[in-house]
Amino acid sequence: MANRSAASASVLRVRDLRKRYKDVVAVDGIALDVSRGECFGLLGPNGAGKTTTIEICEGLTDADSGDVEVLGLRWATDAHALRQRLGIQLQETQLTDKLTVLETLQLFRSFYERGPAPDTVMSLVQLDEKRDARIAALSGGQKQRLALACALVGDPELLFLDEPTTGLDPQARRQLWDLIEEFKRTGRTIVLTTHYMEEAERLCDRVAIMDRGRILALGMPVQLIASIGVNHLIELSTGSGAQAVELGALRGIEGVRDVRADNGSIQIQAVELHRVLPALLEDLRRREISITELRTHSATLEDVFVSLTGRHLRDE
Amino acid sequence: MSDAIRVRHQIVELTLARIREFSREPEAVFWAVFFPILLTAGLGIAFRSQSAEVLKVAAASPAIVSALKQDPALDVAQMDAAQAAFALETGKVALVATEGPNGSVVYRYDDTSPDGRMARILADRAVQRAAGRIDPTTATDDLVREPGSRYVDFLVPGLVGLGIMSNAIWGLGFSIVDARRRKLTKRLVATPMSRAYYLLSYLLWRKLILMMEIAVPIGFGALAFGVPVRGRLIDLIVICVLGSLAFSALALLIASRARTIEAASGLMNLAQVPMWILSGVFFSAQRFPDAVQPFIQALPLTAVIDALRAHMLQGATLAQLVPQLATLTGWLVVCFALALKLFRWR
Fold first, then answer.
1. Quick one: average pLDDT of A173-186?
2. Which residues of A fall within a CB distance of 8 Å from B10?
3. N or C: less crowded end of chain B, CB within 10 Å?
4. Nearest-5° angle of CA B335, CA B337, CA B339?
């Protein structure tokens, strides 16, 4: 698939990666290439194998088989050199509660041969005001920003972020997204895992959709969304109930791919909204059916996941 | 402010982090200071009346009671037979004297107890003298209470050694397992941090508290009981620092795999119990059979306590303590190397 020049420019190269824990196969033959300057996302529900995959790439977990090359180096032989060049944020780390923000950054900075000054990184993640606050006193979003800062103190070429915004409120999440985008602009490479499709769509240049240890689809978010052949979804409810509407008639409208009745509302998959919507409204007007609710949204990575697996990303 | 932030060496930052973590935990600091004071103060109460130590004995007959009261080393209580039997069983008296047939006296006591045997000698002497025995030779006492040969002199070095061991093992073990449980250790090995420096920072941090741990009991012993420190102060510090390093390395090894505080506690007790019993904290380790002596001498707590006793009581120099110092160095090197190899980082 990838040609030679793309392979040589790749910052992360994974081939046929496998890992099983006692009774579950966590990673079941994964291959991927991440090129320099790219933001690459592993998107999937909990238990899809994202964290195992990223931790193998980070040199924290040993694979059963397969090949991982990071920045052209391998963990078995070049671990120390690699650690100097990577920034890593783990899914769950409780930093020492009793240390302050600045002390924590000074500690992490001391491990690296080069990198920005601790207070520079502190400003970057907007924690200047919390400089002398103990970690115990930080909010969830502030702690996550500090964790990001700890990953940045070594001026990494490649940044691994494992579910960077899980558990944060929407505002804190958007703030973190801004920071990650800023880091992207400096031309460095990011690999992140997430189970939020908005996050993958907003941050990632390319996304691998994972489920049960395998990659189901890989590409740019727009490509993946286009691949399911549905650009838009229309949802409508009528005053007289779904029965009054002839689904067959709606299917006949040009540009409609599929129509489903679901709990009294009707879902229409449309290729082109500007053709389908006027025709749909005209049809309903002619039949004198009143509309109580009408909603449209563009297809998302969530819809891609649903079409691939029949399940939602966050099945409770 | 941007130029004020220096980048220090990681061993400095790691050790600073240890110290900050500890000093910002008020309870930990309180116990580190208060516990040695509590222990030595408790001993102070126990040894305050050492010179006036008396043995409690009981008797029913007024004649025997008055005879026993002639000896100032006996504290005599008059009790009926049932009370006296109960007092003896519960250890409240060391001996019960009763009248036997034909004016004889019967002593009931436990002959395996030093107090019991001593009470038998004193009580019999008092009874015989009251009955008219005249000692054929006159004897007078010339009392010697030389600091350095009393039990308290024996005990204080033992407690100092015990304190160094338990503080190092508990303090370090919990701290390490806690960092592992919070996945902080895993986060740290995701950086280029040196693993040896990480473990070393725990050893260095303990040295800071060590000064407090040894100064309090030794100072209290010297002031309250006149327990001597006959060797050079610098030698004493060398012994304590080396001992603490050895126990800290042992603690690293004990905590090298455990994922939970509970698992670590079990291992820490398992490692310490043999030394509490065998290493001569409260009584001489020489009491154990010759066959186990090589094992006992190889224990780090035995080495620390032997070295401390020889230094404080006999004024031994480091040159005379080479076997003990070598034992401690061996524990330090072997445990640290093993801990570094076995340590669970993830």
1. 89
2. 110-111
3. N
4. 65
**AA letter at A144:** Q
Residues B256, B257, B262, B265: what is their CA dihedral angle, to the nearest 10 degrees?
-40
User: Chain A partners of B14 at a C-beta cutoff of 8 Å?
Assistant: 107, 110
Tell me the mean pLDDT in the region A70-78: 92
What pLDDT is stored for residue A5 in this prediction? 42
Asked if residue A11 lies in contact with residue A70, where contact means CB atoms within 8 angstroms, the answer is yes
**b/e A218-254 (16+ beta carbons within 10 angstroms → b):** beebeebbeebebbbbbebebeeebeebeeeebeebe
pLDDT score of A315 more than 70: no
Residues of chain B positioned with their CB less than 8 A from the CB of A134: 24
* pTM, 2 dp: 0.77
- How far apart (Å, rounded) are the C-alpha atoms in residues A251 and A259? 6
Flag whether residue B183 sits within 8 Å of chain A, measured between CB atoms.
yes
- B88: closest CA of chain A, how far (Å): 55
Only one residue has tokens 């003990």, namely: B324
A99 with B192: Cβ contact below 8 A: no
Would you call A241 helix, strand, or coil by DSSP? coil
The strands making up A39-43's β-sheet, listed across from edge to edge, are A86-89, A158-162, A189-194, A39-43, A206-211, A214-219
Could you tell me the sign of the dihedral formed by the alpha carbons of B183, B184, B190, B193, in that order?
Answer: negative
Q: Which of A133, A158, A155 is nearest to A143 (CA)?
A: A133
- Amino acid, single-letter form, for residue B331: W
ipTM of the complex: 0.83
Is the CA virtual torsion B176, B180, B182, B188 positive or negative? positive
CA of A271 vs chain B CAs: smallest distance (Å):
47
The alpha-carbon gap from A89 to the nearest alpha carbon of chain B, in Å, equals 8
Cβ pair B6, B195 in contact under 8 A: no
- Interface probe for B, chosen from A94, A95, A98, A111 (most Cβ of B below 10 Å), is A111
Q: What is the mean pLDDT of chain B?
A: 87
Among the residue ranges A167-176, A248-257, A284-293, B1-10, the one predicted with the least confidence is B1-10
* 3-state DSSP assignment of residue A131: coil
How many Cβ pairs within 8 Å bridge chains A and B? Answer: 84
Residue B218: which residues within 8 A CB-CB, separation 6 or more?
Answer: B156, B160, B227, B229, B236, B312
Dist. CA B5–CA A41, nearest whole Å: 35
* A111 to B186: CB separation less than 8 angstroms, yes or no: no
B190 vs A83: CB contact, 8 Å cut-off? yes
| Interface residue of A98, A107, A112, A127 to substitute, partner B, most B CBs within 10 Å | A107
Preferred mutation among B12, B187, B188 to probe A, highest tally of A CBs within 10 A:
B187
| Chain A touched by B270 (CB under 8 Å) | no
For B219-267, give the DSSP string: HHHHHHH-----S-HHHHHHHHHHHHHHHHHHHHHHTSS--SHHHHHHH
Cα(A257)–Cα(A268) distance, integer angstroms = 8
Q: Are B223 and B308 within 8 A, CB to CB? A: no
Quick check: B329 pLDDT over 90? yes
- With CA atoms as reference, report the closest residue to B185 among A45, A93, A136: A93
Q: By the 8 A CB rule, do A209 and A301 touch?
A: yes
